[in-house]
Amino acid sequence: MEMKSRQMALLDRFLPAAVWLLLMGLYSHVLAFMTEWISQGSFVDAWSWMGKARVQFANSAMLIFLVLLALYLLTRRAYIAVLLTHLLLIVLAGVNYYKIELRNEPLLPWDLGIAGEAAEIMPSIDISITVPVVVAVVFTLVMTVLLIVRRVRRHKPRVKVWATLSLGVMTLLGAYCFCTFVFFNSQYISSHGISENQFEQVKNYQQNGVITSFMMNLRYITPQKPSNYNEESVEQVLDSVEKSGASEEKPNIILIMNEAFADVTMFENVTYDQDILPTINWLREDYMSGFLLTSQFGGGTANSEFEVLTGNTMATLPSGCTPYQQFLANQTLEAYPSYLRSIGYSTVAIHSFGRQFWSRDKVYKNIGFDKFVSSADFVNPQRYRTFISDEETVNRIIQEYEENKQTGKPFFNFTVTMQNHASYQSSQYDESHLVGVESDTLSDTMKDRLAAYATGIRDADQALRTLIRYFQWEGEPTVIIMFGDHLGNLGSVEESYIKGGYAGDIENDPEEKRKLYSTPFVMWNNFNTIQENAGNMSMYQLLPYITESLGLDRPLYFDYLNQQFKLFRGFAQGVYLDADGNACWEVSSAAEEAFHNHWLLQYDIMFGENYSKGRLFSPDGN
């Protein structure tokens, strides 16, 4: 009898705990589904994913269970554990959903480092609350209230505080071990049929779910070292590069990255009530133009300028990372501005927004700019849509050029505009200033957004004309280059760019996908007549190509990239450009080798031992 009573006592003591753990396990599966529902925005899609990705779903639920259990043991309050877990998952899934909607890119681990920049720009972004988010919030409130009421009716727990805290810490350690064995273990991932797509993260998240994909991406916070990285291999690549002859001509160089600039006349199912791009079309006929393949869509401006100013590529870095903030804010890096400064140029950066946005206040100094002009340095500027106008920004370029004349140095300027930043509504402009839009395939909402977007692009074209006219009159040898950083986010890609006839089957046709990840560039100069359609190339190839075409002095790194250009023209978002600029899914083995050698040099100067120091960006290249 005594033995039986002891067994009953143990059962009475541990059965509730076992039932509680079972319920928490089942509840974790509900939360895993809810998270995916919010992330995908569709109940049907989330349900379908759960059936196809059972391993990923189970792993996600297990991680949620461990987090939920740890929080419960550490706080000793079920409602606190549930509330915190719910909020974490809602934020994770919600931000992922909205980021894909706005930028066609999911939430990535390194995004946590740019929360400040995101918060600064959020007031100008137009987002709507989705049904699954509302359901999740209501569910959170209901569960929290029910658990609070349940706690009021219960007696205080008999387990000692030190015991629950110890179990909580042990559970956290268990969660860490679980992540290490499952999400961070390449062998486990491959053996369970989980495939990763690092170059197309939206597909990666659709296939593996938001939690599994986010956790697996944590492995790539630190860039992977090239397999053959050593001093000898770097020297071999450097020795294979033929150094170009130095030019005595040092013209003024003005490089404008225009926010969300695009050729909106490529919307085949849209007509406008006026000519949007008269200046751009003139330059296309009489000077140089082409399209730049970018890793960005709808945002990520700093990554495009990183590629252009450094000659480095985003394709070899962790997908979705921001080099400015992750790698360059606290280290110097040889780049085109520092090279020009070394050969006698004044180097001035202008950005018509906050000085610290994307850590530009630190990065510009670290890559060789003498001066940085931000929005705080403009006096009562003209604004559209709360942003400083392109015309005002061009006037500031002219002002900085005039002031630079006193130095007697040639002038290099890199400018980032802001007028056409998302989001877009026609009400942001006076009706007399607005471009008219007609389309039989776009919704009224999408036509309204496109009208505002096209208006900003029309204004950018006019501002460029103002700048060119000034330097035509000035007469000093000058080259002006303008390009876009990415296409503008108009909302759903399907409802805007595809229905508008800008792009077609982006899933199966590499050329159609290239359109979605390409922006136009044009070049004007008054000392070397060039009439050329340069076709398609990557962002990082822009300056090597133009400096060679104009016969300008350039660093050895640009000579290497020009050699690479003869094999292939870059890679981004799963799309390769072959030697002729055609979009394809795969390239030749020779191009693959060139791509690897590019990463070898880039790794060396950004993360490695800098064996190439004094050669890639020195005036003589020796």
Describe, in short, the structure shown.
With 622 residues, the chain is α/β, with parallel strands linked by helices. The protein has 23 helices and 15 strands.
β-sheet strand percentage: 5-15%
Please give the CATH class of the largest domain. Alpha Beta
- How far is it from the N-terminal to the C-terminal residue, by CA? 92 Å
**Overall pLDDT score:** 86
Q: How many beta-strand segments? A: 15
In CATH, the topology of the largest domain is named: Alkaline Phosphatase, subunit A
Instruction: Based on Cα principal axes, name the global outline.
Output: globular
Which sequence of strands runs across the widest sheet? Answer: 5-4-8-1-10-11-3-12
Corresponding CATH superfamily of the largest domain = Alkaline Phosphatase, subunit A
Q: Low-confidence spans: pLDDT under 50, at least 5 residues?
A: 7-12
Major sheet? 8 strands, mixed
Number of helices: 23
Over all CA atoms, what is the radius of gyration? 28 Å
The helix/strand class is alpha/beta
Describe the structure using short key phrases.
622 residues; 23 helices; eight-stranded mixed beta sheet; three-stranded antiparallel beta sheet; 2 domains; alpha/beta
How would you summarize the topology of this molecule?
Elements: H1 2-40, H2 43-52, H3 54-75, H4 78-103, H5 115-121, H6 131-153, H7 161-182, H8 186-191, H9 201-208, H10 210-217, H11 231-239, E1 252-258, E2 271-272, H12 278-286, E3 288-293, H13 301-310, H14 323-328, H15 336-342, E4 346-351, H16 360-366, E5 371-373, E6 383-384, E7 387-388, H17 390-404, E8 411-416, E9 437-438, H18 444-474, E10 478-484, H19 494-498, H20 510-516, E11 518-525, E12 532-538, H21 542-549, H22 556-565, E13 568-572, E14 575-578, E15 583-584, H23 589-606
Parallel strand pairs: 1-8, 1-10, 3-12, 4-5, 4-8
Antiparallel strand pairs: 2-9, 3-11, 6-7, 10-11, 13-14, 14-15
